[in-house]
Fold this sequence. Notes:
The structure is a single chain. The protein has helices at residues 100-107, 221-244; strands at 15-16, 20-21, 33-41, 49-51, 54-60, 67-70, 73-77, 82-83, 110-112, 118-122, 130-137, 144-145, 148-149, 153-158, 161-166, 178-185, 191-198, 207-208, 210-216. It is mainly beta. It has one domain (15-244). Strands 1, 2, 3, 4, 5, 11, 16 and 19 form an 8-stranded mixed sheet that branches. A 6-stranded antiparallel sheet has the order 6-7-10-17-14-15, with no helix packed on it. A hairpin with a 2-residue loop joins strand 14 and strand 15 (161-166). It is globular, with a radius of gyration of 22 Å.
Amino acid sequence: xxxxxxxxxxxxxxxxxxxxxxxxxxxxxxxxxxxxxxxxxxxxxxxxxxxxxxxxxxxxxxxxxxxxxxxxxxxxxxxxxxxxxxxxxxxxxxxxxxxxxxxxxxxxxxxxxxxxxxxxxxxxxxxxxxxxxxxxxxxxxxxxxxxxxxxxxxxxxxxxxxxxxxxxxxxxxxxxxxxxxxxxxxxxxxxxxxxxxxxxxxxxxxxxxxxxxxxxxxxxxxxxxxxxxxxxxxxxxxxxxxxxx
Length: 245
């Protein structure tokens, strides 16, 4: 008897929103219910931070590792190693005008060396549930290397498309990066996306400061039916009143 091997089901894919400039604590999404949130960095910089009521737990990167897992999140690279030895904050404005907790969140990071692609795997999902993923890339220090800045812009990719974020929108010390929110409905217990560094700098490595994942309740079919019935009844009542008039 011939054995038939089922093809793996493709992951749902993340639909990205627009890249948005970092501005204040209100950047941090509070829609739905928090699943997990992480602050990436070294042992001393990846600290617990609460911004806009959302608590980001430490995700400590062991330098020169190829893959790192904390909780249900795994960060890995394709052709190099993970690094977190830079402080990408600044004492200059507008970065210095952010709250202390937001500055701390955006001052630490994980990046992948050697122009490698960095992949982020999100676990602990419930198939059928809808999710909102938010991540940040910021380099307010304009970190210098012999040939230019390490970070310029980062492409976040997945099976449903991609989005490009600037690590520093003003290209000046103290400038601010960007964040993005993506949405997807899980069809498996995992989802993933990739980060690739790009831009005009001599060195362009993918940079990730923080991320959070939130679940959003979807109304049951019966709820939709009741809402439609209510609209229909309301419309019929208005029609009857107009006819009587």
